[in-house]
Give the backbone structure.
Amino acid sequence: MTPADITAALQERFGAAVTPGLATALDPFVTVEPGRLVEVCTFLRDDPRLRFEMLNDVSGVDYLETDPKKAAKAGFDPHLEVVYHLSSFTHPGRRFTLKVVLPRWKDGTPGELPEVPSVAGVWRTADWQEREVYDLVGVRFPGHPDPRRILLADDWEGHPLRKDYEFPLEYHGVRCR
Amino acid sequence: MLLENRFEDGFVVTSLEQAINWGRESSLWPMTFGLACCAIEMMATGAGRYDIDRFGAGAFRATPRQADLMIVAGTVNLKMADRVRRLYHQMPDPKFVIAMGACTCGGGPYYKYGYNVAKGVDLVVPVDVYVPGCPPRPEALLEGLMRVQDKVRRMKDLTKGGAEGPPVPARTGAVLLPDELATPEKALAFVTETKERAKPAKA
């Protein structure tokens, strides 16, 4: 199956929950509604035509231009994306990408983290990957078995890979700036 | 030094303080403690080629309670800073700290954007000697060790008043190069010749 066939199969099954991505993209992708992500992932893993048994990685991207002069030309509205890279063992070499587009803050309230349902029940790999996304980009994954920070200290404040992150002044008595 | 050379061979006259300092500087035991890539270079310094044991600092202790010298080799991130401080406090006095590498001297490449890195280990524990470099060569670390030894040599635990003036460097970590590498021209010729010899023989 070509990426276009995969997109067609997903659209046939899930309708408007799946939006086809840029046709010229190097990594073919679709954008998925956060609410139906687990269904889509289970379908991609279990459908005999698709069989994406492996989740290569989960990454979070913060789309924000902090410079107000450049913001108009940036070409995107401020938002977050969570990206899932999949590949298949049954059909070697087949790759696919899912994207979930999120607001930077849940309901537009600063400080409330946006949420994506966890796919740790579909692929075990997602456990630590989602913890890392939570740690560094600040996305909550409801349904995650162990939703703690993975790299930074447990009492760390903020999510450092957000573009508007500000360094702490001091941490446990050590000056940071 | 009135008594010097008054006795038969095998007797040395010195002050108790100097004898203690001599013993102390010749057996600085470092702590087995590596945080990042500088630790590799520290291990190289401990291994046969550079052999930090020649200066009495080869007994890397696996516990802070037996160590006199903490070589902070590598990036200290903020999560680790607490542990570094705790290890420092667990060492018995007198204790010395060498900040090895750019990261421990002042943040190094993580200075601007390293949200998780302490900008220098001197913000965490007091540092005696800074050894810059990324990572420093083993000779540089040996030089740093000798600067610690200079500090030890002028310690005054027994006499009142304490030491005056900065420590006087007594030795250097510079390495005497073999004859074929002594001048740049000779070194170039040596490298060229080695490369020539390494080429596969034409069949």
Summary: Chain B touches chain A through ten residues (CB under 8 Å). The longest strand of chain B covers residues 69-73. Chain B has a mean pLDDT of 87. Residues 16-162 of chain B form a domain with the Rossmann fold fold (CATH 3.40.50.12280).
